[in-house]
Known about the structure:
Blueprint: H1 3-8, H2 13-33, H3 36-52, H4 57-83
Helix pairs in contact: 3-4
Amino acid sequence: MGLISGLLTLPLAPVRGTVWLAERIQEQAEAELYDEDAIRARLMELDEAREAGEIGEEEATQAEDELLERLIAARALRADRTHGGIDQQ
């Protein structure tokens, strides 16, 4: 970036910083949402809670379905990154 373009775009620096920060937060949130180990751990917790009678069968089934959808999405996302040559793991 040249001196002139740098000076002309200087007022946009706070906006660019905010956008950059929002992108990093989104990346972190997606990483946590699609963490396969965390999803598997939560599935095990649900199973234990169901066996202990802490939650009902219908509630456990619904939660399991949501977690399995996240697990499938995580694996698809990882496959896309791997096949796209952007494997970040």
